[in-house]
Amino acid sequence: MSDEENAPRQNPRTTTRLSLGALSGLLAGGAALAVAELVAAAVRPQAGPVVAVGGAAIDRTPAAVKDWAIRTFGTNDKLVLQLGILAVLALFAVALGVLAARHRRTGAAGVLVFGAVGAAAAVGRPDSTSLTDALPSVVGALAGAGLLYVLVGRLPAAPRGGGQAPGEGWDRRRFVLAATAAAAASAGAGAVGRALNGAGGQEAVASRKNIDLPPPASRAPAVPRGAQVRVAGVSPFITPNADFYRVDTALVVPKVDATAWRLRVHGDGVAREKTLTFDDLLRRELIERDITLTCVSNEVGGPYVGNARWIGVRLADLLEECGVRPPSKGGPADQLVARSVDGMTIGTPVEDVMDGRDAMLAVGMNGEPLPFDHGFPVRMLVPGLYGYVSACKWIEDIELTTFDAYDAYWVKRDWAREAPIKTQSRIDTPKPFARPKAGAVMVAGVAWAQHRGIDKVEVRVDDGPWQEATLAAEDTRDTWRQWSYAWQATKGGHTLTVRATDRTGEVQTEKRTRTVPDGASGWHSVVVTVE
C-alpha cells in the first residue's frame, strides 16, 4: 500500500466540527467587538478595544517603524493599523473556535483573555481617567465567551471509536438559527454603537457651528501679489483645510465641545494660575498670521508641510500674565509641556515661545474655526519648530517645567528634545519620471526655513553648475516661499536637484539623514525623461 493509503484520515465528523468551530469563533469575536462598541458609546469611544489596543500599539511601536508606516501609508497609517488589529483578532477568534470545538470551556474562557488585553489597554491609556474604561472590553468578552459556548454546544458531537456519520445526532437547523441570530444581533449592536458614538460628538459639532470668530485685533497682511508662481503643478500658497496634512497618534479624532472646554496654565514660575474657557480666549486680543507648519516625519521632498492663515491668542502674552519669565530673564522653567485631551504630551522650549515670534493658541484656520482633524477647539503652534515639539492639538493643559524634570511623549521615544525646522526645498513640477517635451520646461516648487526665511533657491541639472531660480514674492519669514526655473531641456534622461539658502546664509545641506531624531535633511531630486 502507498504512504497516502497508510496515512490516518480525519474523521468527516471531526472536520465538520472543527470547521464550524472556527466559524463559531469568528461569530463570537464579532459579537464581542459589537457589544464592546455599544458599551463604549455609554463610556467613551476611546475606551473601545480596537481603539485602546491600537493606541497602545502606537505607543509601543519603535520610532523607526512609525516613520516607515507614515512614509508607506501616509495619512492612512491609522486605518492600516486598525485593519491589522481586526485581522489579528479574527485569527485569534478562529483559533479559539477550533480550541472550543475540542475543549468547549477552555475555548470559551480564552475569549476572556481577549477582554483582559483590551481592558488593560483601555485603562492604561494616558487619557484614561477611570476604571470604567475597562467595561467595554470586559462586557464584550463576556458576551463573546457566552456565545461561543452556546454555539459549540450545537455542533455535532465529537466522534468516539468508529464514530458516526457527520449528520447523525446533530440538528443543523438549531446551529444555523443560532449562528444567524448571533450574526444579526452583532450587526445590530455594532450599528447602534457606531450611531451612538457618532451622536456623542454632536454637541461638539454644534458648538463649532455656533462659533463666530471675532475679527482679529492684529490682521495678517494681504498675501503679496506674486507669492504664487504661475506654474501648473505647484502647491497653492495657502493650503486648503481639506488638503492640509494630518499626522498624529489619535485613532479616533477627539470631538471636544467648545462650551465645555477648559485650559489650565500652571507649573514652575507660574505666579498666577489660570483656567480659561473658549469664550475667555475669544474675548482676548486675537492675532492673525500666515504660518507654515512642517512635520518632523516629512522625508526630503515629502508632503507633510502646509501653509495656512491662523487666528489665535498670542501665547507669550498669556504666559506673561501668569507671571512666567523665560530662562534668559531668570525664569525657572525652560520647558512648556502641552497636554492634549487624548493624552498626548508635547514639550516646547519656553525661550522660543517668548522670544517675540508669533507663538499662539490658535482657534481659527483659513477663516473658519479649527477643523476637528486639526485640533478644534484650540491648538498650539510655534513658528520655526517641528510640530512634535510645538503644535499640540486639542490642547487642554499647559504646565511649565524643565527638560531635566520631564520627557514628553516623543522624547521618550528617542526624538530630540528641541527641533528647529531645517532649511528644505522641494520640486513640485515636473514630477518624478515625468516625460516632458524638449525645449522650455518650467521647474518649480517650494522652499521653507520657518522663522529664518528663504534667501535663495538653486537648481542643478545632472552634474552641471547650480543655477539660481527665480523666487516668488515673500509673505513672511514664517511661511514657505515658491520658486521657478526655466530649463531648456534636451532629449534624454536627466536628474533635477534643488537646494535652498536661508536668510542666515546657511545653505541646505547635501547630507542625507532620516527623520529621526530631529528631521530629515538632504537635497530633493527628481529623474525625468525628455522626449
Could you name the ranges where pLDDT drops below 50 across 5 or more consecutive residues? 162-168
Number of helices: 12
Whole-number mean pLDDT:
90
List the strand order in the largest sheet.
2-1-10-5-6
Percent of residues in β-strands? 15-25%
| Secondary structure tally: strands | 18
How big is the Rg?
29 Å
- Tell the overall outline: globular
Structural notes for this entry:
The protein has 531 residues and is α+β, with helices and mostly antiparallel strands. Helix content is 33%, strand content 21%. It has 12 helices and 18 strands. It has helices at 3-6, 12-43, 49-60, 63-73, 77-102, 104-123, 135-152, 172-199, 202-209, 278-283, 315-321, 350-353; strands at residues 262-267, 274-277, 286-294, 305-314, 335-340, 345-349, 360-365, 368-369, 379-381, 395-401, 424-429, 439-448, 454-461, 467-468, 470-471, 481-489, 492-502, 524-530. The strands form 4 sheets. A 5-stranded mixed sheet has the order 2-1-10-5-6. Strands 3, 4, 7, 8 and 9 form a 5-stranded antiparallel sheet that branches. Strand 5 (335-340) and strand 6 form a beta hairpin. The radius of gyration is 29 Å and the shape is globular.
Salient structural properties:
18 strands, 5-stranded mixed sheet, alpha+beta
Set out the fold topology.
Layout: H1 3-6, H2 12-43, H3 49-60, H4 63-73, H5 77-102, H6 104-123, H7 135-152, H8 172-199, H9 202-209, E1 262-267, E2 274-277, H10 278-283, E3 286-294, E4 305-314, H11 315-321, E5 335-340, E6 345-349, H12 350-353, E7 360-365, E8 368-369, E9 379-381, E10 395-401, E11 424-429, E12 439-448, E13 454-461, E14 467-468, E15 470-471, E16 481-489, E17 492-502, E18 524-530
Parallel strand pairs: 1-10
Antiparallel strand pairs: 1-2, 3-4, 4-7, 5-6, 5-10, 7-8, 7-9, 11-12, 12-16, 13-14, 13-17, 15-16, 17-18
Helix pairs in contact: 2-5, 2-7, 2-8, 3-5, 3-6, 5-6, 6-7
